[in-house]
């Protein structure tokens, strides 16, 4: 029985990467914030790098949600995010130096685990050790993400809420430092860290962060209740997900759409549409299997074209990204895991001028054909891609804003991708600026 009038409820959209990250989520989130009153990060940390180009000006965000670039939009850092307090403050200050008002519209969950200096040291020392004993680097960003999530799961993490209690903070920090120094010195052959400088930094950060600490889940519920539209901004990509990605060559959080609920505190019944962001080809940074990978070093090759025309270098680490053809069999896996409602294809213009374009439709594995990415990284290494070849186009698609303006072969390519993976293309991004966008169906109005 319905009693009284239900409050107006906003519409909530989740944006996730469907490949190995760097699909161009930041631009799309920024573009959609004209329809949102709040943007929420729900996983990862400052390993993410979202590059935004607004009126020709380039800004890179790592931890703060992309909505911060739009005046009046509230930004929420949910409990699923790991927060490096020092980095967060420096990012706030960098945005303030651009003239943006940040502190009054940024809300940080008290439940976020903290990334502390020993997490960074351990992350880097472990990678160095993996490399020296030839056991295979993961290629992490070296930001301490994995070790911080380990502490969370081990139920010993310091959380943002501990910053409010100096005595509790010091006691927990001392215990955790002892534990991690033992690993640094005893296992990794690194130097121990000292308590006092770490504590002083944490206390300084606490003072500044305190006004922004919040019960984010409850705030989101209230915002939803008064009709705010919320945008959930995924970081990394589905194939880097700790459970569903190419384990162990993955990040340490769940990057899939389902985690928008657990990582923010707003239930899944209040999420209405999942937008999957897909680059028109594929890239990956760090180690791990990549069936459609091409040579990016040799001038004149397709891989070199994708790497140079696409400017495929990491926002956070500056590393050259590995490049290859679009992998529809891997995308199919992402579409299923995320329950994608619609896709946004990005960087289509990078394919301009190629005579032929290939799409991987499946793989040959142990004498059989498989049409979806296997779950085992060793099996993926054995996969030989099966390609379908389509004609390319010579006209430029850069900056186009209308589907009808696209060259016919470009439309056919997109339609084929859509048919292969079984999800509708609702948007196409044709350049880095907000305006370089073709809209077919708006996620907030779909
Ligand atoms: P971590 O997240 O720093 O632990 O790194 C684990 C893996 O995820 C490595 O292969 C990284 O290159 C990759 N990774 C982490 N963040 C991003 C991102 O924002 N884009 C692409 N790859 C990422």
From TrEMBL:
The question of whether Repeat is a record keyword is answered with: no
Q: Which Gene3D superfamilies match?
A: Adenylosuccinate Synthetase, subunit A, domain 1 (3.40.440.10), Adenylosuccinate Synthetase, subunit A, domain 2 (1.10.300.10), Adenylosuccinate Synthetase, subunit A, domain 3 (3.90.170.10)
Instruction: Give the UniProt entry's GO cellular component terms.
Output: cytoplasm
Its keywords, alphabetically, are: Cytoplasm, GTP-binding, Ligase, Magnesium, Metal-binding, Nucleotide-binding, Purine biosynthesis
Q: What is its EC number?
A: 6.3.4.4
Q: From what superkingdom does this record's organism come? A: Bacteria
Per UniProt, Mg(2+) binds at 22, 49
Which amino acids does the record list as binding GTP? 21-27, 49-51, 321, 347-349, 429-431
> Which Pfam family, an example, fits this chain?
Adenylsucc_synt
Q: Which residues bind IMP?
A: 22-25, 47-50, 141, 155, 236, 251, 319
Q: Enzyme group, top EC level? A: ligase
Q: Which reaction does it catalyse?
A: IMP + L-aspartate + GTP = N(6)-(1,2-dicarboxyethyl)-AMP + GDP + phosphate + 2 H(+)
Query: From which source organism is this entry?
Result: Rubrivivax gelatinosus (Rhodocyclus gelatinosus)
Give me the residues that bind substrate, please.
315-321
Its function, per the record, reads: Plays an important role in the de novo pathway of purine nucleotide biosynthesis. Catalyzes the first committed step in the biosynthesis of AMP from IMP.
InterPro entries associated with the record: Adenylosuccin_syn_GTP-bd, Adenylosuccin_syn_Lys_AS, Adenylosuccinate_synth_dom1, Adenylosuccinate_synth_dom2, Adenylosuccinate_synth_dom3, Adenylosuccinate_synthetase, P-loop_NTPase
Q: Which family does it belong to?
A: Belongs to the adenylosuccinate synthetase family.
Task: Give this protein's Gene Ontology molecular function annotations.
Answer: adenylosuccinate synthase activity; GTP binding; magnesium ion binding
Q: Which cofactor is recorded for it? A: Mg(2+)
Its GO biological process annotations read: 'de novo' AMP biosynthetic process; IMP metabolic process
What is annotated about its quaternary structure and interactions? Homodimer.
- Specify the protein name: Adenylosuccinate synthetase
Point out the gene that encodes the protein.
Answer: purA
Pathway(s) the chain acts in: Purine metabolism; AMP biosynthesis via de novo pathway; AMP from IMP: step 1/2
For this chain's record, the cofactor binding note is:
Binds 1 Mg(2+) ion per subunit.
Give the subcellular location.
Cytoplasm
């Amino acid at each position: 029985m319905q009693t009284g009038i239900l409050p107006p409820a906003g519409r909530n959209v989740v944006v996730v990467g469907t490949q190995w990250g760097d699909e161009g989520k930041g631009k799309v989130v920024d573009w959609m914030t004209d329809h949102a009153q709040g943007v929420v990060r729900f996983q990862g940390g400052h390993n993410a790098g979202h590059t935004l180009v607004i009126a020709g000006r380039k800004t890179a965000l790592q931890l703060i949600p992309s909505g911060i670039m739009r005046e009046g939009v509230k930004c929420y850092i949910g409990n699923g995010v790991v927060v490096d307090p020092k980095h967060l403050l420096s990012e706030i200050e960098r945005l303030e130096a651009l003239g943006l008002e940040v502190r009054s519209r940024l809300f940080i969950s008290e439940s976020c685990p903290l990334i502390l200096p020993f997490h960074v040291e351990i992350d880097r020392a472990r990678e160095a050790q993996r490399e020296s004993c030839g056991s295979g680097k993961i290629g992490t960003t070296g930001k301490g993400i994995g070790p911080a999530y380990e502490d969370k799961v081990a139920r010993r993490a310091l959380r943002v809420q501990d910053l409010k209690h100096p005595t509790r903070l010091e006691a927990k920090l001392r215990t955790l430092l002892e534990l991690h120094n033992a690993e640094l010195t005893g296992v990794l052959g690194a130097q121990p860290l000292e308590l006092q400088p770490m504590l002083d930094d944490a206390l300084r950060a606490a003072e500044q962060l305190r006004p922004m600490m919040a019960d984010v889940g409850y705030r989101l519920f209230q915002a939803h209740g008064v009709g705010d539209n919320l945008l959930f901004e995924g970081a990394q990509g589905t194939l880097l997900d700790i459970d569903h990605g190419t384990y162990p060559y993955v990040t340490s959080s769940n990057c899939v759409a389902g985690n928008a609920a657990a990582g923010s505190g707003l239930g899944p019944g209040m999420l209405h549409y999942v937008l999957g962001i897909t680059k028109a080809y594929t890239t990956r940074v760090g180690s791990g299997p990549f069936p459609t990978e091409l040579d990016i070093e040799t001038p004149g090759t397709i891989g070199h074209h994708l790497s140079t025309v696409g400017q495929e270098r990491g926002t956070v680490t500056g590393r050259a990204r590995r490049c290859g053809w679009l992998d529809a069999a891997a995308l199919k896996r992402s579409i299923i895991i995320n329950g994608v409602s619609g896709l946004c294809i990005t960087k289509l213009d990078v394919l301009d001028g190629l005579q032929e374009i290939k799409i991987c439709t499946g793989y040959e594995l142990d004498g059989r054909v498989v049409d979806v990415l296997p779950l085992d990284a060793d099996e993926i290494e054995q996969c030989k891609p099966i390609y379908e070849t389509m004609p390319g186009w010579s006209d430029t698609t850069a900056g186009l804003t209308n589907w009808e303006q696209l060259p016919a072969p470009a439309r056919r390519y997109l339609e084929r991708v859509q048919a292969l993976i079984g999800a509708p293309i609702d948007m196409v991004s044709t350049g880095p600026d907000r305006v370089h966008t073709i809209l077919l169906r708006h996620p907030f109005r779909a």
